[in-house]
Structure formats: C-alpha cells, structure tokens
Amino acid sequence: MSESSTASRPTLEAVAARAGVSRATVSRVVNGGDGVREPLVERVRRAVEELGYVPNQAARSLVTRRHDAVAVVIAEPETRVFADPFFALQLRGISKELTAHDSQLVLLLTEGRDDHARVGRYLAGGHVDGALVFSLHLDDPLPELIHGAGVPTVFGGRPGWGDGTRSAVYVDSDNRGGAREAVRHLAALGRTRIAHITGALDQTSAVDRLDGFRDVMVDADPRLIAEGDFTPAGGERAMRQLLDGCPDLDGVFAANDLMASGALRVLRERGLRVPEDVALIGFDDMLPVAEQTDPSLTTVRQDIEEMGRLMARLLLQGLNAGPAGTGSQEGLVGAPSSVVLPTTLVRRASA
C-alpha cells in the first residue's frame, strides 16, 4: 500500500470526531465491547459507514484476543475432497454461517503424516479462534494434536474414541437409523438376499451404517457384506465381489451415493436390471449423484449443508461464551451439546 493511500485511510480519531464521542467509545463499539448506550452505538456505526472505516485487524486482535478466523480441517487428501460433492456441501454450510458472523474460513487438508504435524503446528500457533474437523479416521493423530494445541473444536461426525477420557462437541446424522430404514424398505419390497457395501470401516459413519444393516439382517450371509471406501471405484470393486460370491442377490444397500453409482455400473455390465432384478439404495441424497443416475437413486437423505452450518454455529456459540474452564468440551463452554440430525428415506426409481 502506498503512503498516500495509508494517509487517507480513516482513523479511530476521525470516526470519533464524526460521531461526537471519545476515541475509547469508538474502540469499544468497533471491537464489540459492552457498556455503550445504544444511541451512541448507532452514531458510531453511522460514522463508520460514512467514512468507510476499516478496523486494523492486528490491533483489534490485541484487544479482543480474537482473530475472526476458523480453521476447517478435512482429514482427507485434496484429490478426494475436490472429487466428492459431500465435502462441497458441508463446506458451503460452514462458509455461510461463518460469513454471516464476519469470520474467515481457513481450509486445511491432510495428505499424510507430515501434513498432520503441519496442521498441529498451525493450530497451536494461535492463528485461528477455533477448528471444525471432519472425515476423521480411527487411527488419525489429528484429535490428539488438536487437543494438545488447546484449540476449541467441533467435530463433524461422532469421534471414534470411546475410552471416556475426552469429551467432544460434534454434529452427526442418524447413520444407524437411516441404514435400518433403507434395509427395511428393501425387505418390504420382498427382497430376501440383501447385500451391503460398507464405507471405509475406519470411520464411525461407516461402522454405524453397517450396524444398522445388521440390526435388520441379523443372520446375513457374510458374503453379502463387502467393504468399500466411499468412492465410485470402491463401489464398483465391492459390487463385483458381491456378485461373484452371491450371484442371486436381489437387493443392495450402499453406504453412500457415490458407491451406489459405481455399483449401478457393475450391475448394468452384468446384465442385471435395476430395480427389477436388483433393488439399490444409497445414502446421502447428494442431488448431483442421486438424480442423475439411471434409474434415479433411492437413498437416505442427510442434510449435509445443515451439518456444516450447525458445526460452525456450535463453535461460534462456544467462543462467544468466553474462555473455557477445566473439563469443558474440547475448549467450549456454554455451547449446546452435540447434535444428531434425523435422516429420511427418499424413494426414487432404483428401489
């Protein structure tokens, strides 16, 4: 920035003169402090708008100890993040909520162990007010690194630790209940050889959906369960495995829409009609996938964008409640408890 542009930038003093109040009053209003009467607040805000005053973020951070920035940590490589519409939907929800509260989104991805350490160092460096973390795997070191950094955190999805040593605020969907509804629907259609393509079983969402399948198919043939990885290619591999082991299967529940789309391609390759020969159900209801398959995909809807929005809202509520005390949920106090959103079966042509 040139000296002339710096010199022309409105100052706190200029705002104070325009509003007819003290510099300290302007500082309290601009930095969100209390104790200023509403008529004075309005005068300051009007003067800020008229002059085009922009607060100095570095100076503001010294006063408020806030950076107005939130790290969004996705425990996946960028090739997966940018290929899967799930992440775009969740990021859109997060971004909308943060933008509404004038907070910036800082996106951090992890490709390998070196990236985990880098993310841990960044969070510990005091660059952001908090973190939103999702797509964790069971052996992921990120939760421990984040816990050590002391950064207030909200998780997307139920965390995988169950030792009772740590509490966590998280937003999730009713994965198990949604899976049960999907399999019950297949059974109600008269399907008796129902298979399941799981997600990556080092993630709690995949485990919960497998448990929901087993709740209904209590005595399922082990050959009717094949592990996928939440990708279309994983769905293709699992579908081939299932057909090779159980060629007479007549129903498939895939743990997400992307794997269902891969399974659909394999069923068509094998000359099987959907839904006449094999009924197929996915999970997510990602419209770019579910409505564009042929036939259109019956699936379990979870509100992915709303999950992102709620994650951001829980974090901001906790930050606004003040500094955390001992025993708080990952550094959050005063925030609502974790949220599990309901799911809904959306019936289309595939089942």
Fraction in helix: 40-55%
What is the terminal separation in angstroms? Answer: 61 Å
Rg for CA atoms: 25 Å
Quickly give the structural class.
Answer: alpha/beta
List the total number of helices: 15
Low-confidence stretches: 1-7, 324-331
The counted number of beta strands is 12
Q: How would you sum up the global shape?
A: elongated
Give a short summary of the structure.
This protein is α/β, with parallel strands linked by helices and 351 residues long. Helices cover 45% and strands 15% of the residues.
Plain-language structure description:
- With 351 residues, the chain is an alpha/beta fold.
- It contains 15 helices and 12 strands.
- It has helices at residues 3-8, 12-19, 23-30, 38-51, 57-64, 78-81, 85-100, 113-124, 142-149, 175-188, 204-216, 232-245, 257-269, 287-290, 304-320; strands at 69-74, 104-109, 130-134, 153-156, 169-173, 194-198, 225-227, 251-254, 279-284, 298-301, 339-341, 344-346.
- The strands form 2 sheets. A 6-stranded parallel β-sheet has the order 2-1-3-4-5-11, sandwiched between helices. The protein has a 6-stranded mixed β-sheet with strand order 7-6-8-9-10-12, with helices on both faces.
- Helix 14 (287-290) links the parallel strand 9 and strand 10.
- Helix 8 runs parallel beside helix 9 (142-149).
- The longest helix has 17 residues, at 304-320.
- The chain is elongated, with a radius of gyration of 25 Å.
- The termini are far apart.
List the helices and strands and how they pair.
Blueprint: H1 3-8, H2 12-19, H3 23-30, H4 38-51, H5 57-64, E1 69-74, H6 78-81, H7 85-100, E2 104-109, H8 113-124, E3 130-134, H9 142-149, E4 153-156, E5 169-173, H10 175-188, E6 194-198, H11 204-216, E7 225-227, H12 232-245, E8 251-254, H13 257-269, E9 279-284, H14 287-290, E10 298-301, H15 304-320, E11 339-341, E12 344-346
Parallel strand pairs: 1-2, 1-3, 3-4, 4-5, 5-11, 6-7, 6-8, 8-9, 9-10
Antiparallel strand pairs: 10-12
